[in-house]
Design goal:
Layout (H helix, E strand, L loop, with lengths): L4 H12 L11 H4 L5 H66 L2
Helix pairs in contact: 1-3
Length: 104
């Protein structure tokens, strides 16, 4: 099953700023309804840093995912290639046996 965009976002953001995960984002207005302008500004700066860190974490996640997929693809290709070589060797052996036994 492919991970949903929301699951990926939450997985990464949970480590950075849990308030910004999908679980809590809809509660922020109520939670901070009485904050001062200075507090709101501070929270805005904190959130901006969180989103900057998220972008870095997401880029790293994509690089690691790409590396994993490429590694799996190479492994799958090698498996198919080895199976094909085995089948080719069996066919060659059968041909050699056929011609070898016919000329005796």
């Amino acid at each position: 099953m492919i991970t949903s965009p929301e699951e990926i976002y939450d997985m990464l953001m949970r480590e950075i700023e849990p308030e910004l995960t999908s679980e809590f984002i809809d509660t922020l207005e109520e939670k901070y309804k009485n904050e001062t302008p200075e507090e709101a500004e501070g929270r805005g700066k904190r959130y901006k840093k969180a989103f900057d860190r998220f972008e870095e974490a997401f880029a790293k996640y994509l690089m690691e995912l790409n590396a994993s997929v490429q590694s799996y693809r190479k492994s799958a290709f090698r498996s198919v290639e080895e199976e094909s070589r085995g089948e080719d060797a069996e066919k060659m052996s059968a041909i050699e046996d056929f011609f070898g036994s016919g000329s005796s």
